[in-house]
Inverse folding.
C-alpha cells in the first residue's frame, strides 16, 4: 500500500499503480475510519481497478465553533484498517498539500446548499465542494464513492460534478449501521452512554417513516409529525434539529409525496453532537 503526503509523491504512486492501464477509484474521507468507510472501499474494489483513499480533515468545511480542533483522529489505526482491506493508495495530505499558500478559489453551489445542513452550517458545502474538486483534480479518479448517510452531500457532489463537467463517476453506497440501527459515524464517539442508547431513535424514526410509505401514507406533514413525536417521546436527551421530506434531487420540501418517492432526512442533536439519518422512499 502506497502512503503518500505530497502531490508529487501521489503522482508517482498513481503512475506506478496505473501502469497496466487499470482504472482508479477514490474514497474521500476525514479519517477515524469505521465500517461505513470500509463499505465504500469494498464497493470500489467490487467495481474493479485500483482503490485510493484520502484522509484529510478539511478545515474549510468546518464553521466557527464547530469541532475542527477536536475531530477524532487516529492515523495509525486508519492505515492498519486500510492495509487489511487491501487498499492500493492512501493520500494523507497536510493543509498546504491541498491548499497551497495563496489559494483563493472556492466552489459555490446555489439552491441545494441553502437548506438543511447548508442552512445550519453556512459555508460547509462550499468547503466540501472545494476540497472534493481539488481531491478529484489531484488524484484524477475514474470513480468516487460517497455514503448515503450524508444525503445532502451526495446531492451537492452530484450537482457540481455535473455542472462543472468533472470527469468522475460519482457512486453512492447505502448507510452502514450499528447492530441497534444507529448509522455509523466518526462523531458517535462523542456520545455519552445515555445519549448513545437514545440515539437509536433516529433509525427507529427512519423505519417508522418507511412503514407509513409502504402502507400508502403520502402526507409529508404526517411523516414530519411522526418523526417529531418519536424523538420527543423516546429521546429526552436529544432535540430534533430538523426533519425534512423533500424532492431527492432539488431538496425542495414536499406537501404530498409523489409516487416517484422522496428523501426523508433528519438531524437530532445530543448536546453538541448532531446525528444524521435519512431514507430514500422509492416506488
Ligand atoms: N454509516 C455510513 N454508511 C455509509 N457511508 C458512510 C457512513 N458514515 C460515513 N460514510 C461516508 O464516508 C465518507 C467519509 O465520511 P466521514 O469521514 O465524514 O465520516 P463520518 O463518519 O460521516 O464522519 P462524521 O461523523 O464527521 O460525519 C462520506 O462519503 C460519508 O458519507
Ligand atoms: C467528502 C469529505 C471527505 C470532504 O471533506 C467529507 O465531507 C466527508 O467525510 O463526508
Ligand atoms: N461526513 C460529513 C462531514 C462533515 O460533517 O463535516
Amino acid at each position: 500500500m502506497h502512503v503518500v503526503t505530497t502531490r508529487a509523491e501521489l503522482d508517482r504512486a498513481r503512475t506506478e499503480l496505473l501502469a497496466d492501464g487499470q482504472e482508479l477509484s477514490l474514497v474521500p474521507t476525514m479519517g477515524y475510519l469505521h465500517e461505513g468507510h470500509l463499505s465504500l472501499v469494498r464497493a470500489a474494489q467490487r467495481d474493479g481497478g485500483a482503490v485510493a483513499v484520502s484522509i484529510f480533515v478539511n478545515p474549510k468545511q468546518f464553521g466557527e465553533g464547530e469541532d475542527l480542533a477536536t475531530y477524532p483522529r487516529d492515523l495509525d489505526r486508519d492505515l492498519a484498517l486500510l492495509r487489511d482491506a487491501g487498499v492500493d493508495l492512501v493520500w494523507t495530505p497536510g493543509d498546504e498539500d491541498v491548499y497551497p499558500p495563496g489559494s483563493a478559489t472556492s466552489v459555490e453551489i446555489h439552491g441545494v446548499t441553502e437548506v438543511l445542513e447548508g442552512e445550519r452550517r453556512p459555508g460547509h458545502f462550499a468547503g466540501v465542494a472545494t476540497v472534493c474538486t481539488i481531491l478529484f483534480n489531484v488524484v484524477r479518479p475514474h470513480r468516487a464513492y460517497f455514503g448515503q448517510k450524508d444525503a445532502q452531500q451526495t446531492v451537492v457532489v452530484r450537482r457540481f460534478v455535473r455542472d462543472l463537467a468533472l470527469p468522475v463517476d460519482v457512486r453512492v453506497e447505502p448507510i452502514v449501521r450499528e447492530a441497534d440501527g444507529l448509522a455509523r459515524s466518526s462523531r458517535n464517539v462523542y456520545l455519552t452512554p445515555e445519549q448513545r442508547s437514545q440515539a437509536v431513535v433516529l433509525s427507529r424514526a427512519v423505519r417508522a417513516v418507511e412503514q407509513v410509505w409502504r402502507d400508502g401514507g403520502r402526507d409529508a406533514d404526517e411523516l414530519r409529525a411522526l418523526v417529531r413525536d418519536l424523538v420527543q417521546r423516546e429521546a429526552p436527551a436529544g432535540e430534533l434539529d430538523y426533519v425534512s421530506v423533500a424532492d431527492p434531487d432539488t431538496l425542495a420540501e414536499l406537501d404530498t409525496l409523489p409516487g416517484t418517492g422522496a428523501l426523508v432526512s433528519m438531524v437530532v442533536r445530543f448536546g453538541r453532537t448532531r446525528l444524521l439519518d435519512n431514507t430514500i422512499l422509492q416506488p
